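hey so i finally got around to running the thing on that chain from the lab meeting. sorry it took forever, my laptop kept dying and i had to restart like 3 times. anyway pasting the input first so we r on the same page abt which one it is
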Amino acid sequence: MPYCLFALFAYAGGLLWTITFVSLGYFLGEKWHNVYMYSHRYIIPVVLVSIVVLGIAIYWKTSEEKQYETSSTKRDV
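ok and heres what got predicted. didnt touch it at all, straight out
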């Protein structure tokens, strides 16, 4: 990936995160403790599901690449 494109995505993502959290802090004010209390119980299940989905995606991608390498090697022979 060219550096300029990477920088564009990185800075755009950083700006989006900054705007999101500053806006949440502004609108929630002192109520942010309530959001933490309710969201805290869902953090671990969401992280675990995300890890499982990521693991499946990585496994799927690597198995497809291995199949492609195997089938292309057989054709060359």
